[in-house]
Recover the amino acids of this structure.
């Protein structure tokens, strides 16, 4: 009986009966020393292994195992309770699956968005290079090849900007010296 008491599961009745159908032990203490239901007994005597019967207003599923000594262990499941448990389990698993899928999608979205922003920054840098504007910088930090490429582009833009500015300064200085040479040439020509 102690082992039967440990099987307290809602909607499941577990009985140990003798060869005459008398319940010797059960997880429903009120059934001990009573005769098993006639409908259940028919299923057991027909040796079908499993069957379904109506008891009152509820459907019951009966399974059993016969021992060599004539004793039988029967498990009687309340079909509506069993269906409810199965549906709750399916619903729970479905919700867990949906939750995991949403987390995965959110993670993928964040990762793709981060990389897409880096690619858009590279595109903007290319356009500004074509317009000879070397002031644009990318602020995106990535620890991979794309991040390395952005750092190198930022460094290249800095070098190009400084070279471009030096060229402008040299051009201005050259222009000033060219004007000075032209003025000196004109002065020498007029003096001669």
């Amino acid at each position: 009986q102690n082992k039967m008491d440990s099987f307290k599961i809602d909607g499941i009745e577990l009985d140990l009966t003798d060869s005459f159908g008398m319940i010797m032990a059960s997880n429903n203490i009120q059934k001990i020393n009573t005769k098993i239901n006639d409908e259940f007994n028919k299923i057991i005597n027909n040796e079908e292994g499993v069957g379904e019967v109506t008891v009152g207003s509820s459907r019951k599923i009966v399974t059993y195992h016969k021992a060599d000594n004539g004793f039988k262990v029967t498990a009687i499941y309340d079909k509506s309770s069993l269906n409810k448990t199965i549906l709750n389990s399916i619903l729970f698993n479905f919700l867990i699956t949906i939750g995991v899928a949403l987390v995965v999608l959110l993670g993928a979205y964040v990762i793709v968005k981060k990389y897409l922003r880096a690619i858009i920054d590279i595109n903007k840098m290319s356009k500004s290079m074509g317009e000879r504007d070397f002031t644009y910088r990318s602020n995106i930090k990535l620890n991979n090849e794309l991040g390395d490429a952005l750092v190198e582009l930022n460094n290249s833009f800095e070098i190009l900007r400084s070279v471009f500015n030096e060229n402008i300064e040299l051009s201005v200085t050259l222009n000033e010296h060219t004007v000075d040479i032209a003025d000196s040439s004109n002065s020498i020509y007029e003096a001669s």
